[in-house]
Amino acid sequence: MSTIRGGVEQSRERLIALVLLLQRAWQYGSLTQEEIVRELKIDEFPVSAKGPRKVLAYEGNEGAVRQKFERDKARIRELGFEIETESKGDGAVGYRIDPSSGYAPLIYFTPDEERVVRLALRFCGFGASGAFSVFNEVPAVDGGLESSMYYTPVMRALKLHRALAFDYQSGANKPRLVEPLLIDVFNGVTYLIARVKGTEEIKGYRFSRITSMPVVLPDTFDHDEAAVDVAKAWRPEFSRSPTPMDVVVTTNENYADLLVRQYPGSLAASKKDGKVEVGLSFDSPRAALRFVVEGADRIRLQSPKSLKADLSDWLKDVNRGKAPPPEEMTFTGPVTNDVLGQTLQLLHAVYVAEDGLRISELARRFALDEDHVRLIMDRLVALEPMAGSTDGTGAFPAHVIKECDDWDDESHDDSTYRADFSDLPEGADEPSPFMWRDLFELNIALREASRVCHDLAILSAIEKIEGATSSYVQVEMATNETMLDQVSSAVENHQQIKILYTAATADEARSRSIEPREIKVLNGHTYVRAYCTTRESWRTFRVDRINAVVATSDATEERPPDTVVNWLTQVGEEGDEVIVVIESWLRWLFEPLPNAQWLTLDDGRHAVKFRVSNELFLDQLMLCAGDGAVVATPKFARAGHELAKRIAASL
User: What SS3 string covers 205-238?
Assistant: First the structure.
């Protein structure tokens, strides 16, 4: 449970007051820094008397005040709000926030649509960083989508057909100026597909490599359907001169079956020695080489000869090179609690709850102490940051009222907080509870959930979202998960299923009896959490590695509780710590690792720190990285060497 800390709470009140104040200024006139510093008051924390006393939000000398004010503006911009500046007649600068820069258009979901939204966010969402707790009654765990604050300005720019400016890490960190056309999700990785401003070139930009908050520029642009069609056809493997390559490999019957299901269009033929020959086609030699490397020693390459030569060269460079000692590399720690984002999420949860929410309900959803919820929400009810310069709370609404069962014991009452929009001008729209990034998250989560939940409410919810945003979004899944419906049915009907399963580094399927309990998506793959009666423990299985479901029965026994909360990213929390130094073009391979931390070195290379609980996984990872990646952690200095030797011996 989150605890109450004085400095954090003063920062929270100052930030939320500034956000709401500058949003109000959008209609009533901008405010200068001098006006805000002179008059903005907040409650002092920790409380030293019977009740908090009012203090100036910005105190200190002129330099310290300006630094604090600039930091606060930066934190507000990090949530996607656009703080506009306006020149005053006396030469001063006024500030205001366009609410539509952060908030998407208002959407009303039906009860059925809210139900599928809750389901979708459990299946595939941002987790604690997203809208999960706004809809669901329990705290969020790790999500399967890449969370980014950058979705808000990008979605808004797509809606308005306006250009974007941002910094982007490719070979080097450089500014980019683009005209956004589409957001595309490839195997769980999100890209902005955009036209380079002033040209006809269309490129893809991975969100995780955008290094500054995108700025929505005032100039609009035109595009035709042809440009959108080109954007829809863009792929991460894009090549200006495609050179298709046919590949033939041999493997055992089990792994061949897995390949045929994962690569539609491939052909398999049994051989006399019990091996199976599989033929596949790829768009380029590079894609073909990547396939062979990912297959490791589970396959044997037969043709073409040119690919054999490329593979031989690749294997010589696995985990070779120099890296700085680990002790010389300092990684940034985890992001501190975002008190502004957390407060807005509490506010949004109340906005979408027709009957309001009690303190106990909010505490459960957001994993907060009840006293903490009461403290935050009471401030939203009665916030008057510049009461002397406005008409009190009526002119400065957060639109929240408090209902108490026992006003005489208010400090212990399980009060209800409810949205109240009765003070809005006649004909005015209610405030939207959704940030632009929330609607992106809901759109993708609903699309993914439609693979396991066949419900018309999903389609109608997506239609409402896309109607409100007018944004082009598409999701592409390359993995063929043929057993997903059967696994999903076992979860829904509380069944035990007997499966044939091929583990990550194995080439033979083994029989396992499991009782599936929950399904989630991570990095483009669907995972199921199940009690494995074969191993008598809770395990996680990747659905596309299930070769077959051979038997089904009702699950009748009581199983021990699953003690792993964030099972989806458990691999990122357990095992040995490893640091790998890579060239920048290899980031894509390491970015999906759960809880990875990054550092840019002086020579332009990148260092990534993560955990591995299985050394075979690290061997495979370094094999796939090839030239351009070296392990800096001494214990794993030879990771991938033996595997590369075995493959080379088979050529």
Answer: EEHHHECCCCEEEEEECCCCHHHHHHHHHCCCCC
Tokens (6 digits) for 76: 């507000």
Beta strands per DSSP E along 212-305: 215-220, 245-251, 267-270, 276-282, 300-303
Question: Which residue matches tokens 């996680």?
Answer: 540
Give all strands (DSSP E) within 82-188, no chain letters. 83-87, 93-97, 162-169, 173-186
Residue 489 lies in a domain: yes
Among candidate residues 102, 132, 157, the one where a domain is terminated:
102
CA distance 60 to 38: 12
Burial of 112 (0-12, 13-18, 19+ CB in 10 A): middle
Residue at token pair 């991460």:
236
- Rounded-to-integer distance, Cα 367 and Cα 138, Å: 8
**Ranges of residues in the chain whose predicted pLDDT is under 70:** 1-7, 45-52, 237-242, 333-337, 383-397, 477-479, 571-573
Q: Which domain holds residue 86?
A: 1-102
C-beta neighbour count of 434 within 10 angstroms: 25
Read off the DSSP letter of residue 470. -
End-to-end CA distance of the chain: 56
Q: Is 67 helix (H, G, I), strand (E, B) or coil?
A: helix
Q: Which of 622, 621, 596 is nearest to 607 (CA)?
A: 596
The predicted-structure confidence for 163-202, as pLDDT tens digits, reads as follows: 999 999 887 789 999 999 999 998 888 999 999 999 999 9
SS (H, E, C) 404-460: CCCHHHCCCCCCEEEECCCCCCCCCCCCCCCEHHHHHHHHHHHHHHCCCCCCHHHHH
The C-alpha atoms of residue 24 and residue 30 are separated, in whole angstroms, by 9
Question: Which of 534, 563, 592 lies at the terminal end of a domain, its last residue?
Answer: 563
Cα–Cα distance for residue pair 81/102, rounded to 1 Å: 5
Contacts 24+ apart (CB under 8 A), 236-244: 236/186, 236/189, 236/191, 236/204, 236/588, 237/283, 237/284, 237/286, 237/287, 238/204, 239/283, 239/284, 239/286, 242/283, 242/284, 243/284, 243/285, 244/281, 244/282, 244/283, 244/284
Question: 504 in a domain, yes or no?
Answer: yes
Cα separation, 374 vs 362, in Å, equals 9
The answer to whether position 587 is within a domain reads: no
Residue 515 to residue 499: CA distance in whole angstroms = 11
Element (H, E) at 612: strand 606-612
Give the pLDDT confidence of 306-339 residue by residue, as tens digits.
999 999 999 999 999 999 999 999 987 544 457 8
**Number of domains within the chain:** 2
Residue appearing with tokens 């609903």: 446
How far apart (Å, rounded) are the C-alpha atoms in residues 641 and 100? 54
Does residue 373 sit within a domain? no
* H helical segments located in 29-150: 33-39, 62-77, 99-102, 111-123, 132-135
Residue at 419: amino acid letter: A
